[in-house]
Amino acid sequence: TTSHWKEQKRENAIEADMKVLWDYKPLEINHEKRWKKTDDKETEAQRRAVGLLNKLSWTNLDRMLASFLEILGITPAGTEAASVDKQLVHDVMSMIVDKAMNEAHFAELYAKFSSKLAKVHKTFKKTLLSLSQTQFDKIEANEDNVPEEEARLIKKKYIGLMQFIGQLYKFDVIKGNIMISCLEKLFVKADEEKLECFAKLMTTVGDKLDHEEGVEDHDHMVHVWQDTYSMAGRKSLNGEEKSDSNEGPKAPSNRIKFLLQDLIDLRECGWQLSQRQKDEQAKTIEQIHKEVAMEEAAANRRGGPPKAKMTRSQSAGNNMNNQRQGSFSSSGTDSLMPPLTGGSKDTDGFEQVRAPKKGSLRRVQSDVATTSLQRAMQGGGGKSLPKGPTNKLPPKAPSAIAFEFPEPEECKQKMKSILKEYFVGGDTADAVLSVDELVGYTGDAQDDAVVKRGAAVVEAGALLVLELKESEVKAYLNVMKNCLAPQGTRTTAVLPVESLPLGLREPLEFLRDVEIDAPLAGKFLAQIIADWMANAGLSFLLFLQAPDYFKSDGRPADFLKQVLTCYTENDGCTITDEHVDVVSKLMTKEERTENNDVRKWLEDKS
């Protein structure tokens, strides 16, 4: 039948597909080449050492050092008497030198790490100096006819080596006489690569060399600096100008000449690195945060309405011409400016300008003296104005430029930046001044815009510190203390007290949500409110106007007890009937049943 025929056809197709699979067989395993777990302790130690070096940073230097010594089987106690595997030490120190050469940005970090290792065991120092000497000797024996790409990589390594060796000298791993010898070997007047290495090394060690005893007056260094000044075309050490004659060595190229000029400028400026050179150094996370906070604060201080861009038709020249034309027109002296056009057109269609007649232009003087000098010249001691009718208008007084304060949402972002900078720098006066620039409070608490900006500042600061440490909370309270009281010659506070209840609404509403990620948020907010109650006159009645979510699901009675506990820790602060009444209104039925005496429950600190 037809169905039987279809079924047979299907079985034949399956069988044909299976025959293809019959030809496949499992892969043959080559046991000689397959990966096998090795029990070589030396290889395993090198692998772990590479992992630690990749994680090395300024913040974990000591911790990585302990782990590094553990890999090598060395304990901090009794290291001088302990025996070490010299081959393993050689291998791991080679890794450090190689990484310093390839990662010049972290040369100081690797040098600091190496100096710590050198203090642990003399084998580390001996191996480190031997490896550094070997790599330095390769610079002297550099080969020519090297491919361009390979030459670029070699040059990069040499620059990294110079920075690494210089930092070792600064960490007292290498002695000063050895460093002088290195500088002399690099100062080859006809070799650009060695001169560049000389400049890089001198940039790193020059400050210490100049201040180290017996080095500044070293005869060899004096000759080196004299030749450096000569090659850079600058004044010599004794202040004499270099002549254009052939006296003294010349730089092999302009690039080296300018490089040596930069080196001389750096020395004459007391070896103070430029901002670009500082940016090229590795930094800790705290330094990065501080720089970011300072940049944000600087940007905030430059805030305000952006400057209008000047179009092509609104250039300074056109604006100046418009002002001139307006002044002539308003004073009725258009006839004093004769037209300069009206000539015939040339073959290109341009109109020829006719020169003005001699004496047709004169300077127009206003009949109203605008300065004390002009009034004195007119007579009367500058007190009287010229008599007689005039059709000229007196000059208008310049209109005051209205300062536009930021919107509340922008105030929140700027307040966070101000606090982050303050947590790093600790400049309270600068933080208070920045807050004053945001709020603009002059004593008028009825100004809704001022109160809203102040509330935004309070809200942003409180929400920020709730997720930080207690030290940041105390720092925030210190800033707010100075903002809520007159400072110096100022007769009013920087923030109106009316902004506090409004600024606390968001922190109270989201307190329990914040506590999920920051369990101490409730404690911190209680400290903040208690401090403002004790020192800024914040009313406890603010909790009756708190958000509904806080009063229904935020366990308000427990939180208010926590606030009053912090509040009574201040001198002269006790629980009043008003406090008891507010807490009673916010307690649930179950809480009222369990605690009939609310005052006793609040005073119980167990």
TrEMBL record:
Domain MI: 410-548
Region feature Disordered, mapped onto this chain: 295-396
UniProt-recorded name of the protein: MI domain-containing protein
Stored SMART domains: MIF4G
Pfam families xrefs: MIF4G (PF02854)
Alphabetized UniProt keyword annotations: Initiation factor, Protein biosynthesis
Organism field: Entomoneis paludosa
Native organism taxonomy: Eukaryota, Sar, Stramenopiles, Ochrophyta, Bacillariophyta
Transmembrane segment boundaries: none
Biased composition (Polar residues): 311-334
Keyword presence, Coiled coil: no
Family: Belongs to the eukaryotic initiation factor 4G family.
GO terms of molecular function: RNA binding; translation initiation factor activity
Gene3D superfamilies: 1.25.40.180
Alphabetical list of InterPro entries matching this protein: ARM-type_fold (IPR016024), Initiation_fac_eIF4g_MI (IPR003891), MIF4G-like_typ-3 (IPR003890)
